[in-house]
Predict the 3D structure of the following.
Amino acid sequence: MTTQMTSPPAVAGPVRKARRAESSYVARVGRPGFAWALPATLFFAVFAIVPLIMVAVLSFMSWNGLGSPEFAGLDNWRRVLDDPVMIKSIWLTLLLTALGVAVQTPLSIVLGVWAAGPQRNRAVLSAIYFIPLLLSSTAVSVLWRALLDPNFGIPAQVTWLFGDGNLFGEQSTAIGVLAFVSTWQFTPFHTLIYQGAARAIPPVLYQAAEIDGAGRYRQFFHITLPQLRTSVITSMIIMIVGGLTTFETVLILTQGGPGTDTTISAYYMYQKAFKGFDFGAGAAIALVLVIAATVVSLIVVRVSGYDKMRSTMEGVS
């Protein structure tokens, strides 16, 4: 039995020519050179890398803000790591960060998905809801400090709900106030992330689900949430880094009190450096925060599988 040889389709020639032309174009155009990234690289180096290196060097120095720093070896690190207030501040920082993630994440997802819909008056309500996002942390803290003042604020007028009205007098209520204020201010930002991500979900997925008889709740849990996966991870990383570096809210609302019950690591760094004039110990605490934020962020990225995602579509790896 003989095998009849078939000639390649006539279209093969034009296809090969088109591919060669495309390869030639890519090789000729290429990616933007390093010169395009040079301004951003210099900006990041001057305002991020160089200060970080200076802080790292200062953590091994003894300096009270006057004169010249003197080399102190590991003395600052020993004092910081053996300080019970520092250890307590780390746990408080982690607690506030965990509360922020646990409360803001589901709230932001629900509000973001709602804001992405076609509801009536949605644009007006979304604009009003995003107002806290326009305010600085200092302004927000001053506002809530006045509203929650135990003598003249809301708690003093609603004693049946707040008791003596001093929400800053106990650790549990003071931590609750800090978590509430952070949620009120930053939830709109994360809602904006989820709103954009929800609008990018292909409508055909919902249309197919409706044909299969899936209701609104099944669509949310089986389509919307999986498609928001990368946005959830991004939002959580921002929350974690923000929670570990929170400062103004504690400074204005509680000043670390009562006692040291709300003294988080960033505020303790401020106390050590700018109140105790121990800039070496303050630099060591700052470096601990940088390392902690980096490690936690990398863990979230690795555990979530975010680093293995290759698709440009939400939730598709």
